[in-house]
UniProtKB/TrEMBL annotation:
Key words, A-Z: Hydrolase, Metal-binding, Protease
One Pfam family matching this protein: Peptidase_M20
UniProt similarity note: Belongs to the peptidase M20A family.
One annotated GO molecular function: metal ion binding
Residue intervals passing through the bilayer: none
Lineage of source species: Eukaryota, Fungi, Dikarya, Basidiomycota, Agaricomycotina
Organism: Antrodiella citrinella
Gene Ontology biological process terms from the UniProt entry: proteolysis
Start and end residues of each Peptidase M20 dimerisation domain: 214-370
PANTHER family: BETA-ALA-HIS DIPEPTIDASE (PTHR43270), CARNOSINE DIPEPTIDASE 2, ISOFORM A (PTHR43270:SF4)
Name this protein carries in UniProt: Peptidase M20 dimerisation domain-containing protein
């Protein structure tokens, strides 16, 4: 089934309206990690639900209950399930995305208001929180629906939807929702799903389209060390008492080396060294040292060898230190000995590692390091505050071939096939619960700055991405679902 020119033309001619859609989406301060903004998150859910409904999708909002943060009982924003099309002769594609975003304030260093999409026609950039992660991509799906609905074009596949608004905050309740919905079989929203498509990642660089077949998992930890019953004056008590901050810095400094090597015993257990063929695959990706430097804004890479850098991001675990809570964090030179401090760090995991397995290793190691300090401070039990499984799949099946073919149609290039360093924990849940192929098909570029200041999405990626997601549906419809091969795939 060829992609109707009418669909592609609609995306082009309605460009300004489609940008307005993203502008409306970005205006919702749907920061799932900020307890004071829960109403805004739910407002975003209601708006997005309305968008889906107005283009013919039958939806339900699912109540995911409550969570407790610092003794405060908070409502978890609803998830949305949706369906359109019920033709037994068509394939059924399930789409996942998230409506929540990371926090953002102009004072963090944004050049513009983060929740006002700044559309720069001259540079082609649209700057705003969520523009690429993940409001741009989920709006691109709505653009596909609108283009069909408005022109009375029949969708080439049945579609099912699962959107959440807690992805940036541990996806509370989502695994259970996906599992219970999958267990309903024909009676649920995931009836007869043939494949899953998630657009919540990015091209590797700024020029080559990408499809992604792996994600790292995550294990997030908090280590708390306490001592005095209250903060102390450092003039009176310095060199008199053991200091929790000194102990914590000592512990944290022994988690990872400057060159990125993780020091936790067993941190690399189960992860095989790459074969020479695998290293060649990394070398074949369109990526340079300059791409790294431009994306991070400086000459700070751990190696000059691009394959080494790519493997660091995609196929090895990593450990990053995130911050310390309870330390004197204002800008003044407060001469205090903090009484109780909490260090925050996380590990990215790769198959076959699991958050639980890593938790055991981290607890044992932190305890060992702390004991060696011979301090009288107290180490509170190490907490793993969130965890997500890594995921990897076969990137040669028909779902990936459909994505390759769609990319070639829209961009005139075959996509790089990548694994990603970030995490979308529900990906593995979909794969396991439904037993079908899961594909990541990104809209944005590698320099979009997700989670950072001045997060952006290029207009050309938003428009191209809308065409890509729509075209992918036609390729899925057309492909023989038994084919397995590489006619479109670069990767061996
Ligand atoms: N869209 C990202 C996931 C991602 C990041 C994919 C980088 C590819 C490259 C997602 O919104 C995200 O930020 N996930 C969190 C998950 C965590 C909160 C469990 C992450 O990776 O930190
Ligand atoms: Mn995301
Ligand atoms: Mn994110």
């Amino acid at each position: 089934m060829a992609v109707p020119q009418q669909f592609l033309d609609y995306i082009d001619t309605k460009q300004d309206d489609l940008i307005d859609r993203l502008k409306e989406a970005v205006a919702y301060k749907s920061v799932s990690g900020d307890p004071t903004l829960r109403d805004d998150v739910q407002a975003m859910v209601n708006w997005f639900d309305g968008q889906l409904q107005s283009y013919g999708v039958e939806t339900t909002q699912v109540d995911l209950g409550y969570q407790t943060i610092d003794d405060q009982k908070l409502k978890v924003p609803n998830a949305i399930l949706g369906r359109i099309g019920n033709d037994p002769n068509k394939k059924t594609v399930l789409v996942y995305g998230h409506m929540d975003v990371q926090p953002a304030a102009k004072s963090d260093g944004w050049n513009t208001e983060p929740f006002t999409l700044d559309v720069q026609k001259d540079t082609g950039k649209m700057i705003g929180r969520g523009s690429t992660d993940d409001k741009g991509p989920i709006c691109a799906w709505v653009n596909v629906l609108e283009a069909h609905y408005a022109q009375q074009l029949e969708l080439p596949v049945n579609m099912r939807f699962c959107f959440e608004a807690m992805e940036e905050s541990g996806s509370i309740g989502l695994d259970e929702l996906v599992q219970s919905e999958a267990a309903k079989g024909d009676q649920g929203y995931f009836d007869n799903v043939d494949c899953v498509c998630i657009s919540d990642n990015y091209w590797l660089n700024t020029r080559t389209p990408t499809v992604t077949f792996g994600l790292r998992g995550i294990a997030y930890f908090e280590v708390t060390i306490s001592g005095p019953s209250a903060d102390l004056h450092s003039g009176m008590w310095g060199d008199v008492v053991y200091e929790p901050m000194t102990d914590l810095i000592n512990v944290m400094s022994q988690l990872v080396r400057t060159d990125g090597r993780i020091l936790i015993d067993g941190a690399y257990d189960g992860v095989d060294d790459p074969t020479p063929q695998e290293v060649d695959e990394y070398r074949s990706l369109d990526y340079s040292l300059q791409d790294v430097q431009e994306a991070v804004g400086g000459d700070i890479a751990l190696s000059d060898d691009v394959a080494t850098l790519l493997m660091g991001r995609m196929r090895w675990p990593s450990l990053s230190l995130h911050g310390i809570r309870g330390a004197s964090s204002d800008d003044t030179s407060k001469t205090v000995i903090p009484a109780r401090v909490t260090g925050k760090f996380s590990l990215r995991l790769v198959p076959p590692q699991t958050p639980e397995g890593m938790q055991e290793k981290v607890i044992a190691y932190v305890q060992k390091v702390f004991n060696n300090l011979n301090t009288k401070s107290t180490l509170e039990p190490v907490k793993m505050t969130s965890g997500g499984m890594p995921w990897i799949t076969d990137d040669t099946d028909w779902n990936y071939q459909a994505a390759d073919a769609a990319t070639y149609d829209v961009y005139g290039l075959l996509p790089d096939h990548t694994r990603e360093g970030g995490s979308i924990p529900v990906t593995l849940t979909f794969a396991d619960a439904l037993g079908v192929s899961v594909l990541l098909l990104p809209v944005g570029r590698g320099d979009d700055g997700a989670h950072s200041t001045n997060e952006k999405l290029d207009i050309s990626n938003y428009i191209g991405g809308s065409k890509l997601l729509g075209t992918y549906l036609y390729k899925v419809a057309a492909i023989d679902a038994t084919t397995k091969g590489k006619q479109f795939s670069k990767r061996k």
